[in-house]
Amino acid sequence: MVRREAGCFSVPLLEGMGFLASWTTREHDLGFEARGRLAALRRLGIDAKRLVCPSQVHADRIAAVGRKERGRGANSRRTALKDTDALITDTPGTILSVLTADCLPVFLVAGGGRAGGDQARGGQAAGLIHAGWRSLRKRIVVKAARKMAREYGIRPRILTAVLGPAIRSCCYEVGDDFLSIFPASATRRRGKVYMDLAAEAARQLATAGVPSNRIFDSRLCTCCSGHLFYSRRRDTEETGRSLSTLEILKTSA
């Protein structure tokens, strides 16, 4: 489902549907405060002039973006979309992005062509979500899928979802209160409580109407894979940030 490349992972599954999706490795720090951020983008082949970056606050605001938002946040947090944790678009060439260092990037796409009336405009749409536990508590994944339906006429049952790298339940020890906050996704094991962000995101996708056979999980743990990814839990808050990006490719339609 994923392919490792120089400094990043890509998602051939989505490429076949007309999308470019990727997330970076610790070879590059793409945090807003990182030195050489623009140089890293160039090395990765990411056009900063088409990149849209949110300033994430672990909440549930979802912004629909297009050409006029291109370049926001590419140079600094100061110009990023404020207080936003998910982006959606139906504009080819607009590059959605989120930053993570344990939180879960969730990629949502609907491919080109009409699908029995499910895809009202017959085009493509994409969404990229920064899903930490606070945003998941606010049901950001459900809200993003429903916003794509309102904005673009995309029914959730034709969405395809990919869950990127995140801290997994093997490493994500949390407090006992998570058992009541996330009864389906937090479990007690050997006297400790562990949270499964990916399982909660998948549950919310199913609640929104995305079929289970259209939800794909990379199963990559940021905390376990110190050679590949930054992890706030493992490395402290001062660690770097990975950049996830999602872009609709131009079509001839």
CATH superfamily: CNF1/YfiH-like putative cysteine hydrolases
Task: Say what the CATH topology is.
Answer: CNF1/YfiH-like putative cysteine hydrolases
Category from helices, strands and their pairing = alpha+beta
What CATH architecture would you give? 4-Layer Sandwich
Quick one: CATH class? Alpha Beta
Major sheet summary line: 6 strands, mixed
Rounded radius of gyration (Å): 17 Å
In short:
The protein has 253 residues and is an alpha+beta fold.
Name the descriptors.
253 residues; 6-stranded mixed β-sheet; single chain; CNF1/YfiH-like putative cysteine hydrolases; alpha+beta; 20% helix
Structure description:
With 253 residues, the protein is of the alpha+beta class. The chain has one domain (3-166, 217-248): CNF1/YfiH-like putative cysteine hydrolases. 20% of the residues lie in helices and 26% in strands. It has a six-stranded mixed beta sheet with strand order 1-2-3-15-7-4. Strand 1 (3-5) and strand 2 (8-10) form a beta hairpin. Helix 4 (140-152) packs parallel to helix 6. The longest helix has 13 residues, at 140-152. The chain is globular and about 50 Å long. The model is unreliable at 113-117 (pLDDT under 50).
Helix and strand topology:
Layout: E1 3-5, E2 8-10, H1 12-15, E3 19-24, H2 37-44, E4 51-52, E5 62-64, E6 86-89, E7 95-100, E8 104-110, E9 125-131, H3 133-137, H4 140-152, E10 160-163, E11 173-174, H5 178-181, E12 186-189, E13 192-195, H6 197-208, E14 215-217, H7 232-235, E15 242-248
Parallel strand pairs: 4-7, 5-6, 10-14
Antiparallel strand pairs: 1-2, 2-3, 3-15, 6-9, 7-15, 8-9, 8-10, 11-13, 12-13
Helix pairs in contact: 4-6
